[in-house]
Specification:
about 250 residues, alpha+beta, Type Iii Antifreeze Protein Isoform Hplc 12, 2 domains, 5 helices
Length: about 250
């Protein structure tokens, strides 16, 4: 009987120790995996250029970190936020824009480089290079216009053609800014005829924009496609009937 009491006491002690360690295990906080991300240190209004003082690092649980959250300040500083951001919000790639980068731009305004302008010109099958232009292509713009009769040598030389602007970027074909999603490429892949378009939006200087506006209102404009590796600006004279006949 005495032995039974000793065994029971030892068993009770063992159970008590087991319960103690089990409860102690349950009371320990569960280890949470965390990572450090960039968040907004202040409220950042839309279309604000991000500076270093607008950012701070914050350690967050892994499950709370948003997709495409940014961790390197160099990927954010100098870029523009495309919507209002509030203190503590995570910086994600979809909320910052590299202004002037046509590949990243989601709207036309963000595609235009500082100091440049976007202008749209009307085109057709001929003036639009056979409906084969794509966003991102480089073009020159040729204008054909009627010179002032007083300054022309004779009536036959009143019409004149010249390259007005060179090496400008096509930002959009009609309202399409995406090269990869362009229907022309899809038609080419499927063997169908290329779809038509009626306008090109190109990036030019303010001076070129005013000249193009005048040229389109007083004559004709035509896009000519450049090689993607050719950035040279060439000096070409204006062409009249005499130029053609004397060539």
């Amino acid at each position: 009987m005495k032995k039974l009491k000793i065994v029971a006491a030892l068993a009770a002690i063992a159970v008590a120790i087991g319960i103690y360690f089990f409860l102690n295990y349950l009371s320990k906080p569960e280890e949470v995996s965390t990572s450090t991300v960039l968040v907004a240190a202040v409220n950042i209004p839309e279309k604000t250029i991000v500076t270093v003082d607008m950012l701070l690092y914050k350690e967050l649980p892994q499950e709370a970190i948003l997709k495409n959250a940014l961790t390197n300040p160099e990927t954010v500083i100098g870029k523009m936020v495309n919507s209002d951001m509030f203190v503590g919000e995570q910086m994600v790639s979809s909320r910052v824009v590299d202004v002037g980068n046509q590949q990243e731009a989601t709207t036309l305004g963000y595609a235009v480089e500082p100091g440049m302008r976007a202008i749209t010109i009307a085109v057709d099958n001929v003036s639009g290079v056979g409906f084969l232009l794509l966003p991102g292509d480089k073009v020159d713009i040729v204008t054909m216009y009627e010179r002032d009769k007083i300054n022309a040598n004779d009536d036959k030389n009143r019409m004149q053609a010249k390259i007005l602007v060179q090496n400008v970027t096509v930002l959009a074909v009609d309202s399409n800014m995406s090269r990869s999603k362009n229907k022309i490429l899809k038609d080419a892949e499927s063997g169908e005829n290329a779809s038509g378009y009626t306008s090109l939006t190109i990036m030019v200087t303010p001076t070129d924009a005013t000249m193009l506006t005048w040229a389109e209102s007083e004559g004709e404009v035509r896009a000519i496609l450049r090689s993607p590796i050719d950035e040279d600006l060439v000096g070409t004279p204006s062409v009249t009937v005499d130029t053609i006949q004397n060539n």
